[in-house]
Specification:
500 residues, alpha/beta, four-stranded parallel sheet
């Protein structure tokens, strides 16, 4: 986790166009790298912030961009009495995204998983204002938003209604009833399971003449679905999908999607064209373009500074001993290095360098700065970014709120690692993600759960645990009651098959 100076001038000027008031702007973004950045900006006219100035307000202005998991978690945990908070987002609600697959099939209603952001900020102490607007420098990434889930739901019903028309032959009906999910990750698997349950439990009663023509296909480029889970869960999910009649195509890469067919290539370069009625693309989300360009801009500038600090004799090279002297600080500043050492069961940098170089090294071996960069770059290439999940984003938002709540205290008593440039310590400790477990609903009231401590559970009991966790994680009692009532309604009356 890394803090960096960054400012959206357009938003700042729009909110306080003629003001000389210093502002603090926060960007909260969910991306592949889970980057969260903040900046204490200059005034609109470029004047530096002077803390002793008599014109400085009692509270600094804080602008939060976005009302997703990270932004909402940040707001809920922030001490609103410390800042003049303004929230800017193109949508005026928070959506509980893990239940979006349930929305696509009518298991849960869309309004049950959204909470108006004004209700959330109304509970905060201090003044918090909301602006339904979009920062012009943010390029939103296409994700499975609430509106997309509703469109998928309408598309499913439309495909069923088209296939039910009397003038279609059986081949045309099969085409309309071919549902393809691209991506075998948690979202794709959960949607396939929800869709299967909907089609088998509800559609058969409403459309009895076409129920035997429905086909669900999951396309995954890798060797297994749910590859990020324990192998026991992966194996169970694949076997269950096979029993349920869900066709799982492993090792297939989608090369083209036309308005009639989806084109795939397997590992033997065999091309397959599959006619479809609906395709859902569920292969994850990417980094926002503005964040990606920002990350490219800042680069890895600290590596040179670390090298200079470690090179105590100014020889231009580092011995392994000199590197080991700063290894503790490197691990504190960059937790991924420590994770890599632990995952490879390495006790020192000698083993790390051996792994990076591929040959033996002795302790008196000296490394140039390029070799040092290569070793750290190898770590970066081996350690994956944090997953772009709600759990990660919520923890990042909570962490950032804690930093802002302790801003004044940490300015006087920094708690972070030693600074490579300059003296003293950084104000805050780096962000560290704590994995609390993962769920993968597999349909038929069965869920796979993987919790810390190598605790694996698959079956109906895990489904009830999933119900409990997802209900408890709702942001308000209103949404909690609505989601639970939707689940009960589905058990009693079945899923809603209308396209509204």
């Amino acid at each position: 986790m890394r803090f960096a100076s960054f400012i959206f001038d357009g938003v700042s000027r729009a909110l306080n166009r003629n003001s000389m008031v210093p502002k603090v702007v926060v960007l909260v973004a969910v991306s592949g790298g889970g980057l969260i950045a903040y900046s204490e900006s200059q005034s609109d006219h470029g004047a530096s912030i002077v803390r002793s100035s008599e014109t400085e307000p009692k509270k600094k202005k804080l602008v939060v961009l976005g009302t997703g998991w990270a932004g909402t978690s940040f707001l809920k945990n922030l001490d609103g009495s410390l800042y003049d908070i303004q929230v800017v987002s193109p949508r005026n609600y928070f959506a509980f995204t893990p239940l979006l697959p349930s929305v696509t099939c009518g298991t849960v209603e869309a309004r049950s998983i959204v909470e108006p952001i004004r209700k959330i900020i109304k509970k905060k102490n201090g003044e918090v204002r909301f602006w339904e607007a979009e920062c012009f420098k943010i390029d939103p990434v296409n994700k499975k938003e609430v509106e997309d889930a509703q469109r998928i739901r309408r598309s499913v019903i439309d495909s069923l209604e088209k296939a039910n028309l009397p003038n279609l032959n059986e081949e045309e009906k099969r085409k309309n009833l071919q549902f393809v999910i691209v991506g075998g990750g948690p979202t794709g698997v959960e949607f396939a399971a929800e869709l299967h349950d909907f089609l088998t439990e509800d559609v058969g009663k409403i459309y009895p003449n076409i129920r035997d023509l429905v086909r669900i296909t999951v396309v995954e480029a890798g060797g297994h679905i749910l590859s990020m889970f324990d192998k026991r869960i992966t194996s169970f999910a694949e076997q269950k999908f096979q029993r349920d009649g869900i066709d799982v195509k492993l090792g297939y890469k989608v090369t083209k999607v036309s308005d009639k067919t989806i084109t795939m290539v397997d590992r033997a370069n065999t091309v397959t064209d599959l006619p479809y009625g609906m395709v859902v693309w569920s292969t994850g989300i990417g980094t926002r373009s503005v964040i990606r360009s920002f990350m490219e801009e800042i680069g890895q500038e600290d590596i040179s500074a670390i090298f200079n600090v470690a090179d105590k004799d100014n020889s231009g090279t580092l011995t392994v001993k000199e590197i080991q002297d700063v290894l503790g600080d490197i691990c504190e500043r960059y937790p991924q290095v420590q994770l890599y050492l632990k995952s490879r069961d390495m006790r020192g940098l000698v083993d790390l360098l051996n792994d990076a170089e591929g040959n033996e090294r002795k302790e008196n071996r000296e490394l140039s700065i390029e070799e040092f960069k290569k070793a750290l770059a190898h770590v970066d290439s081996q350690v994956k970014f944090l997953p772009a999940t709600a759990q990660v984003a919520a923890q990042q938002g909570e962490y950032l709120a804690k930093c802002f709540n302790q801003m004044k205290e940490c300015e006087e008593k920094p708690e972070g690692p030693l600074r490579i440039r300059g003296t003293g310590r950084h104000r805050f400790r780096p962000f560290r993600y704590k994995h609390l477990g993962s769920f993968a609903p597999l349909g038929g009231e069965q869920t796979a759960a993987e919790l810390p401590g190598d605790w694996i559970s698959i079956g109906h009991s895990s489904q009830w645990l999933w119900y409990s966790v997802y209900a408890s994680k709702q942001v308000s009692w209103r949404t909690r009651a609505l989601v639970i009532s939707d689940w009960m309604r589905r058990v009693i009356f079945g899923r809603d098959s209308s396209s509204i």
